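Narrative of activities, Objective 1.

The group set out to show that a structural description can be obtained from nothing but a protein's sequence at a throughput compatible with the screening campaign. Below is one input-output pair from the validation batch, recorded exactly as produced.
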Amino acid sequence: MGKPRLPNPLPGAVGLSHLSAYDWEAADGVCGGSPHLHLVCTEAYVVTGGRGAVQTLSPDGYRDIPLEPGSVAWFTPGTVHRMVQGGDLRITVLMQNSGLPEAGDAVFTFPPDVLADPEKYAAAAVLPPGTGPETADAARRRRDLAVEGYLVLREALVAGDNGPYLEFQRSAARLVRAKVPDWRELWRAGARTAAERTGAQLDALAAGEPAYLGDATAYEAGPTGLGGFGMCGRRDEYNLPGTTLPYGGE
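Output recorded for this entry:
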């Protein structure tokens, strides 16, 4: 028997999932997902099929970025984003710091009274397990509540008032503050360890001792959950050992 191996994460310890954007119509007549932001993770969309857009709110203002096969869009921490369905939109999502979004890094644009109460927020954000009608109804209610708060932020930002948007960012940061120690451990075990491994490999190459190449191998994985209800749409997720956690209904 060979020596045991710890599984390696995906390159850079990124997270991976596949999304089919929701086709539920929201209060503003737009079909799509639940607006939210990430506190410490950059997210990228790689469009693999269909048409749509991603609406973003940031210090740059409001943007509506078209999505079509082959296009890539990404957004840094603090950017509110809303996936919009234009027709069979399918996306591969790459997420920085795999494990952190699943641990609560993503915060919905719920109205201020919900954001101000951690228990109320948790009740609004959680979904029943499974992929049946009850879960679908809860996911749609969650989406509608996020859109309710988002439209207020967008209207103010378009009018030149970034106050509500900045207050949402502050509220989101307050909401997750207690989770930061756990996030730090996930980051150390995932993204930081992956970067440090590269540093050690560079040191070995500089010393002319590339013994680590003797551990070369290949990995494969398939989706561990199909058609779940994610923030933006129906989600196929990959529970990759070492870094990525299942969403657990959030």
